[in-house]
Amino acid sequence: MSFDTATLLAALPAAMLFALVTSITPGPNNTMLLASGVNFGFRRTLPHLLGISAGVAILSTLVGLGLAQAFARFAWLYTVLETLSVAYLLYLAWKIATSSTVQVRDGERRPMRFIEAAAFQWVNPKAWMMVLTAATTIHLHSSLSLNAIFMALVFIVVGFPCITLWAAFGTSLRRVLMQPRYLRTFNWTMALLLVLSLYPIVAHALR
Questions:
Q1: What count of other Cβ atoms lies within 10 Å of the Cβ of residue 128?
Q2: Cα 108 versus chain centre, distance
Q3: In this structure, what are the phi and psi dihedrals at residue 21, rounded to the nearest 5 degrees?
Q4: What is the pLDDT of residues 181-206, one digit of tens each?
Q5: CA-to-CA distance for 173 and 96, rounded, in angstroms?
Q6: Lowest mean pLDDT among 15-24, 95-104, 171-180
Q7: Quick one: pLDDT at residue 130?
Q8: How far apart are CA 120 and CA 127, in angstroms?
Q9: Most buried of 51, 70, 80, 145 (most Cβ within 10 A)?
């Protein structure tokens, strides 16, 4: 058995556990998937799910290939990212809070598209925490490029079923939340949780 194969097998359980915990716990992606499942159903939320999985994998690969070093060298870039993250998450929280009906007519409201969900990972603070931590602490291969690719695959294989559970749970709540007042309460709660997910950025800024 080669050294790299041994390294992969030794580090894989830790990588999978890390991907499991970070993917299934609450955060911006899962909060929005839960809300999308309630408001649009599972089938219409599927592009959102696939976009998240692809976006995290792409971000993980690029960070593993050297983007993390760029942020370390140019700290102001990370500050810009944090500012954009806060602004966009507040905008999404408002959009969720003001969603007021499960029955959506064509052209009025829609779930997040694949490209939008993938692009959102670039301003998602939890996604950045996930991939930066993985890139600096998990070593699946001695080659930096292969390590980045392997970690991206782990995020897809382990993470996609985890986030799917959130969309499916939201879909299961549709009947309960058919009454507008219940749906408004749910959407405002989801919006509040999305705002609370900004805590890591606020804590970092305070430090």
A1: 23
A2: 25
A3: -65, -45
A4: 777 887 788 788 777 766 656 665 66
A5: 16
A6: 95-104
A7: 86
A8: 9
A9: 51
Instruction: Give Cα separations from 74 to 35, 77, 152, 180 (angstroms).
Output: 36, 6, 24, 48
Phi-psi region of 66 (alpha: psi -120 to 50; beta: other; left: phi over 0): left
| Distance of alpha carbon 102 from alpha carbon 148, whole angstroms | 40
Angle, to 10 degrees, between the axis of helix 180-196 and the axis of helix 75-97?
A: 170
| Contact yes or no for 163/1 (Cβ under 8 A) | no
Burial readout 143-164 (b: 16 or more C-beta within 10 A, e: otherwise) = eeeebbbbbbbbbeebbbebbb
Calculate the average pLDDT of the chain.
Answer: 82
Question: Are 171 and 42 contacting, i.e. CB atoms less than 8 angstroms apart?
Answer: yes
Phi/psi at 28 (5° precision): -55, -45
Angle at CA of residue 61, ends 113 and 87, nearest 5°: 50
Q: Cβ distance 84 to 65 under 8 Å?
A: no
pLDDT computed for residue 1 by the predictor:
44
Estimate the crossing angle of helix 144-172 against helix 28-40, to 10 degrees. Answer: 40
Q: Which whole number is the average pLDDT over 51-70?
A: 87
Comparing 66-70, 175-179, 184-188, the range with the smallest average pLDDT is 66-70
Averaged pLDDT for residues 114-139: 87
The parent domain of residue 39 ranges over 3-206
Residue 93: how many other CB atoms lie within 10 Å = 24
Q: Hey, how many other C-beta atoms are within 10 angstroms of the C-beta on 57?
A: 24
